[in-house]
């Protein structure tokens, strides 16, 4: 392939002549400097030395007698400075080479800029056909285009594509079938993923409901054990049990209930503390709504039922009533702890009663 040679414009000719003149001037300057350095190296360097008179007298300062002494008392005179100067030719040569290198780089950059400009001007008129810029598998656009809205190039491409489709009808049909099969497969996979996600979500919801049901049944069992224990303790006809411990008292808390309604101190060790007797814990055990402290809008029947439940529990844990009915049956070592817990329950119940008023 032959190299493309373009005719220079007048501005480019003028710039080229200016660069050539500049190069010639620089070359003459370097030659003159080189000749001057060679002549300077060949010339002999001369110098003189000034020495003082050997027998001259000098006066020593600071001497009280103001006497004169010879030059031997002061030592030999210093050597005189040389009048010849020898420049550092290596540094000068390195500097000149650096300057020449920079000039060549500037000229190369100018040439690159000129060639880049030419290349960009040629690329402005480049045209890439649409059939080269997109895949042949996307022919659906052919049927939706309107030839009246096309220019000459687009219309030619549209005609060429239509001719290819007619000439390769079988290939086009097979390609369309493959595309349809791929689309159907993707839709099927998407449907399977959606169905799998739905089933997983449904299974998770069922598991959550079962967990909540188990939790509610367990809470209901605790409430039944609580009521059964209080009936046994308050039944006047029932045979009195031996001395009661702190764990034998049915406290209005889920953590304060034994696993069965039968009293057995050896089977159940209660780790309840007074700090755990809070309004939230007692409300979750006694009332219908778990979070009774939050502002809600229950109906009148629920409010009445909750108030009745709180009153009943307050009568059981009232300090005076509890002292008269059960405190005498509590073990001596647990009386202080039971008394403190009963007082805490009574205070919490009063707070809940005020909230339901």
How is this structure best summarized?
This protein has 357 residues and is mainly alpha-helical. The chain has ten helices and two strands. It has a domain at 242-254 and 274-291 and 299-356.
Account of the protein in words:
The chain is mostly helical. 60% of the residues lie in helices and 1% in strands. It has a domain at 242-254 and 274-291 and 299-356. The protein has a two-stranded antiparallel sheet. The longest helix has 66 residues, at 169-234. Mean pLDDT is 76; it is low at 44-74, 264-269 and 289-294.
Helix content: 55-70%
Low-confidence stretches: 44-74, 264-269, 289-294
Distance between the termini: 103 Å
Count of discrete alpha- or pi-helical segments spanning 4 or more residues: 10
Rg from alpha-carbon coordinates: 56 Å
The 3D shape can be described as elongated
How are strands sequenced across the largest beta sheet? 1-2
The biggest beta sheet, please?
2 strands, antiparallel
State which percent range the strand residues make up. Answer: under 5%
The averaged pLDDT comes out at: 76
Tell how many strands the DSSP assignment holds. Answer: 2
Q: How does the helix and strand content classify structurally?
A: mainly alpha
Q: Can you write the helix and strand succession as a string?
A: HEEHHHHHHHHH
């Amino acid at each position: 392939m032959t190299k493309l040679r373009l005719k220079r414009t007048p501005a480019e000719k003028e710039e080229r002549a200016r660069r050539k003149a500049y190069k010639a001037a620089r070359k003459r300057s370097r030659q003159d400097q080189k000749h001057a350095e060679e002549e300077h190296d060949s010339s002999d360097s001369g110098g003189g030395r000034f020495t003082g008179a050997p027998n001259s007298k000098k006066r020593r300062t600071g001497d009280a007698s103001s006497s004169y002494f010879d030059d031997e008392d002061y030592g030999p005179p210093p050597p005189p400075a040389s009048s010849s100067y020898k420049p550092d030719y290596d540094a000068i040569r390195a500097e000149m080479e650096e300057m020449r290198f920079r000039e060549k780089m500037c000229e190369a950059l100018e040439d690159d800029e000129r060639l880049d400009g030419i290349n960009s001007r040629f690329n402005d008129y480049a045209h890439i056909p649409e059939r080269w810029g997109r895949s042949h598998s996307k022919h659906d656009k052919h049927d939706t285009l309107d030839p009246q809205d096309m220019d000459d190039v687009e219309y030619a491409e549209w005609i060429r594509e239509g001719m290819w489709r007619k000439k390769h009808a079988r290939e086009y049909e097979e390609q369309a079938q493959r595309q349809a099969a791929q689309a159907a497969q993707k839709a099927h996979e998407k449907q399977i993923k959606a169905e799998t996600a739905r089933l997983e979500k449904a299974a998770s919801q069922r598991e959550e409901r079962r967990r909540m049901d188990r939790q509610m049944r367990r809470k209901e069992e605790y409430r039944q054990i609580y009521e059964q224990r209080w009936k046994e303790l308050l039944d006047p006809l029932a045979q009195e049990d031996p001395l009661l411990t702190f764990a034998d008292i049915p406290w209005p808390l889920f953590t304060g209930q034994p696993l069965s309604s039968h009293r057995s101190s050896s089977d159940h060790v209660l780790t309840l503390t007074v700090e755990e007797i809070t309004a939230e814990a007692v409300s979750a055990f006694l009332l219908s709504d778990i979070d009774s402290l939050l502002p809600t809008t229950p109906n009148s029947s629920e409010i009445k039922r909750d108030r009745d439940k709180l009153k009943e529990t307050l009568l059981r844990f009232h300090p005076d009533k509890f002292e008269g009915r059960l405190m005498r049956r509590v073990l001596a070592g647990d009386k202080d702890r039971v008394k403190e817990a009963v007082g805490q329950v009574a205070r919490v119940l009063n707070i809940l009663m005020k909230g339901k008023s």
